[in-house]
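[Meeting: bench + compute handoff]

Bench side (C.D.) handed over the final construct sequence. Compute side (W.E.) agreed to return the predicted structure before the next meeting so the bench team could plan truncations. Sequence as handed over:
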Amino acid sequence: MYLGFEKIKGSDTNILDFWKWTCSDIIIPSNRDDFALFLVANALELTKMPRIHWENSDLRYRKKKVSIKTSAYVEHWKQKRPKRLSFDITPKKGLDAPTEESMTYRNRYSEIYIFAILNEKELRKIDVLDLDQWQFYILRTETLDKYHFDTKKLGIRALNKLASPVHHSRIKPILDDIIDLDLGERLVL
């Protein structure tokens, strides 16, 4: 893993120059996705070490697999009106890790989903570094499966029926409560 000061051999640049060049525009979807993932990882105190790309989930927190889905009303290109929020929640096929064989059924691998929305609707007012412009929805996968088992895209109206938005500062306490409740339910059984 790199820290940023490492030189790119044969040039007068370093890896930090690359990061600035490729990641500076956080409004574009691919960078926004990575930034939202960073925000959640930071809330969960998982940023002390460089990111590990998990196979079937974005993060692991307290032995739970967590998927982060993002959306925004505004993109960096000209739009006539704010776009409709939508999240890809398509169940996927994958590999069964113990047998390394392809699974024949589709499912959602993560136990918890966090939906992150850059909530500002005017491009000139967007400040991706302002956590008050972000909303986060935390949802157990079992709830998502119960109401949207075969759904491929989830809109904001459907999401609002399943969960309420929370501020970045509430992500960790809410996730801890969900995990503690799950552990408590298992102990009672």
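W.E. noted at the follow-up: Residues 26-188 form one domain. C.D. will use this when planning the next construct.
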